[in-house]
């Protein structure tokens, strides 16, 4: 992706990881639910991407907050030496927790520093909703499709009964009521799309690159249309993926 186009990751200046894990704090019910959901997302990554032992994986947007719920791929994948993880921070805690994973710091508002189709699989969990705008989201998906032969992106589903970042029930189904609730509860940062864009099936599908053949589905805690998470899978061999 040329430098003049929109970035792969935007830097909102907000400590997203720290704020998120206030809701999913260690040993809390929120963390237990997050672990269940992310273990099931991991199973769907394996089911769709089917990584071979010698295939390489890029994980975009890993967390330097190391908990039982964070960094599911690094936590579970049996071949960590095949993973390259990228993030905006120094990654000190991440590197200490996962020494066999290659970590690279990337710059905000810049394309990924990898060649086209450099990885067999490019994946990202709970990042797309935080990149700052809808055009940035589309750029993020295009960039993963550029560097990965197969792409798996998972996000929270806005129609899960409890909003993931704030623990607000039901009111996040509607943008106006969610904004009012966030301001009333002192969580106004989460009503700003620079920090969070609530994700629906239709919105996620709209971000697939032109010419690709996307698969959209529910994952995580399965409750039909109210499941905790959504995924977008793109096999670059089935379409242009540009």
Give the key terms.
7-stranded mixed β-sheet, alpha/beta, disordered N terminus, 17% strand, 242 residues, Rossmann fold, 7 helices, globular, single chain
Summarize the structure in words.
- With 242 residues, the protein is of the alpha/beta class.
- It has one domain: Vaccinia Virus protein VP39 (Rossmann fold, 3-Layer(aba) Sandwich).
- It is 29% helix and 17% strand.
- It is built from seven helices and seven strands.
- Strands 3-2-1-4-5-7-6 form a seven-stranded mixed β-sheet, sandwiched between helices.
- Strand 2, helix 4 and strand 3 form a beta-alpha-beta unit.
- The longest helix has 21 residues, at 29-49.
- The protein is globular.
- The N and C termini lie close together (9 Å).
- The model is unreliable at 1-6 (pLDDT under 50).
């Amino acid at each position: 992706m040329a430098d003049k186009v929109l970035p792969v990751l935007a830097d909102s200046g907000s400590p997203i990881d720290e704020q998120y894990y206030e809701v999913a704090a260690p040993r809390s019910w929120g963390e237990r639910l997050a672990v269940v959901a992310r273990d099931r997302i991991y199973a769907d990554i394996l089911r769709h991407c089917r990584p071979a032992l010698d295939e390489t994986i890029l994980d975009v947007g890993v967390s330097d907050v190391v908990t039982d719920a964070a960094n599911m791929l690094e936590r579970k994948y049996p071949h960590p030496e095949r993973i390259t993880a990228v993030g905006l921070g120094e990654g000190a805690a991440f590197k200490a927790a996962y020494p066999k994973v290659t970590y690279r710091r990337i710059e905000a508002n810049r394309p990924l520093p990898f060649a086209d189709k450099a990885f067999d699989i490019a994946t990202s969990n709970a990042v797309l909703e935080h990149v700052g705008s809808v055009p940035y989201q589309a750029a993020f998906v295009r960039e993963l499709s550029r560097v990965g032969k197969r792409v798996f992106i998972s996000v929270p589903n806005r129609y899960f009964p409890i909003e993931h970042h704030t623990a607000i029930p039901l009111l996040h189904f509607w943008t106006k009521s969610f904004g009012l609730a966030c301001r009333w509860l002192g969580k106004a940062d989460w009503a700003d799309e620079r920090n969070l864009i609530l994700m629906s099936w239709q919105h996620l599908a709209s971000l697939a690159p032109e010419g690709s053949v996307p698969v959209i589905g529910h994952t995580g805690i399965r409750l039909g249309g109210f499941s905790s998470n959504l995924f977008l899978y793109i096999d670059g061999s089935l379409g242009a993926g540009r």
